[in-house]
Amino acid sequence: MLDKEPETSGKPSSKEPWLAVNWSMILPGLGHLYVGKPLQGWGIIFAYLALFLLSLFSVITAQETGLIGFVAIVLFLLLGFGSWVGAYRAAIYTNDSAFENHRTTLKDPWLAVFLSRFILGAGHLYMGKWILGSILIVAEILTWIYAPALVFLGLWFVLPFVANHAYQAASDQRKNSKNIILKLFLLLFIAPIGLSITLGLAIRSLIVEARYIPSGGMEPTLQINDRIVIDKVSYVFRTPKRGEIILFEPTQALKRGGFENAFLKRIIGLPGDKVEIKQNVIWINNQPLQEPYTMSGTTESPSPDICRSNYVTMDVESKPIDPPIPIYLSQPQTIPPGHYLVLGDHRELSLDSRCWGLVKRSEIIGQATKRFFPFNRMGRLDKK
């Protein structure tokens, strides 16, 4: 993919510095591979991916990552930009003076491609195409102002053609490396779409996903239309803890009632716990549970009629069904292995384990860790 082409002047190993930068913009380390520095190239690629995963974990986890997460994000960004500089310098050190003198005499077509990737039209201005360059810049600015949602989609489809046109405008197109523009053109066109779809599906199914809150069962902690982050990684390495908010698939009891969408509730009882409701308070192993997160501070044990009524009055087509355990929590219950008791924070409104029983460990999708919208309430959900 990364050609090592002979040059029109200079020794055969001469490389285009700005082409190396363009490769590094696609993935840090590719520019070093193009220049002929495989150890540096692969080292940068692995380090970049490791920092990406560490940065992502620091964003989605409920654990206090603090300085480690901040440093990982900073290093991730610095390595990305630093690889551009490194690839550029490595190419220059590879080249002889004759090639460098020739390269710097005329407008560099690969610099035009680089500038176009920052601002549509910048590469054309560099090449002296003032009218077309100005039109492209104005068009991008207007898109940012009036249709920002279309900016990234538009750049994916428009950028490759603009970058290619800027390259073709150069008087010196480096005939021996001209075939590379087609490969770069295809990567600029295909890579963003392919990587976005592939990584998006992989990240959403295995690592993290965003959810919005459609109902008030978790008030006051979570408000209707809040946007939250679901961490799917942490529970691979540890068991769920009391007090954590989890996303889980509908249990068999809920499915029998016609529910298909995932539920979001707080873990109250763990496997082996003895749980009951006494005097409107949750008792765990004969000790009252302190719950500062609830709406009213009291918890009732609903009757079968209330549970059935809740099922048939929800905004779904559901069937009245009996709880798997008669009036769950109206009397002491011991939670079996691999099961969790979950309740909503708004106890008067929440349809939860009091009506339909327990959640299996295998039904848990992940932990709700952080709120990212609205912006004035961004932050970790475990912060009081």
Count, helices: 14
CATH topology of the largest domain: Umud Fragment, subunit A
CATH architecture of the largest domain: Ribbon
Span from first to last CA? Answer: 52 Å
What do we call the CATH homologous superfamily of the largest domain?
A: Umud Fragment, subunit A
Q: Could you tell me the strand content as a percent range? A: 5-15%
**How many β-strand stretches?**
12
> What is the succession of H and E elements?
HHHHHHHHHHEEHEHEEEEHEEHEEE
**Fraction of residues in helix:** 40-55%
Write the layout of secondary structure elements.
Blueprint lengths: L16 H10 L3 H6 L2 H23 L5 H29 L2 H9 L3 H10 L3 H5 L3 H17 L4 H18 L10 H28 L1 E5 L14 E5 L2 H4 L7 E4 L3 H5 L6 E7 L4 E5 L2 E4 L2 E2 L15 H10 L19 E2 L4 E5 L9 H4 L2 E2 L3 E10 L5 E2 L4
Helix pairs in contact: 1-4, 1-6, 3-4, 6-9, 9-10
Structural key phrases:
384 residues, Umud Fragment, subunit A, 3 domains, 14 helices, 46% helix, elongated, disordered N terminus
Task: Explain how this protein is built.
- The chain is an alpha+beta fold.
- It has three domains: 1-105, no CATH class; 108-206, no CATH class; 209-380, Umud Fragment, subunit A (Ribbon), CATH 2.10.109.
- Helices cover 46% and strands 14% of the residues.
- It is built from 14 helices and twelve strands.
- It has helices spanning 17-26, 30-35, 38-60, 66-94, 97-105, 109-118, 122-126, 130-146, 151-168, 179-206, 234-237, 252-256, 304-313, 353-356; strands at 208-212, 227-231, 245-248, 263-269, 274-278, 281-284, 287-288, 333-334, 339-343, 359-360, 364-373, 379-380.
- The strands form two sheets. Strands 1, 2, 3, 4, 9, 10, 11 and 12 form an eight-stranded antiparallel β-sheet that branches. It has a four-stranded antiparallel β-sheet with strand order 7-6-5-8, with no helix packed on it.
- The longest helix has 29 residues, at 66-94.
- The two termini are 52 Å apart.
- The model is unreliable at 3-12 (pLDDT under 50).
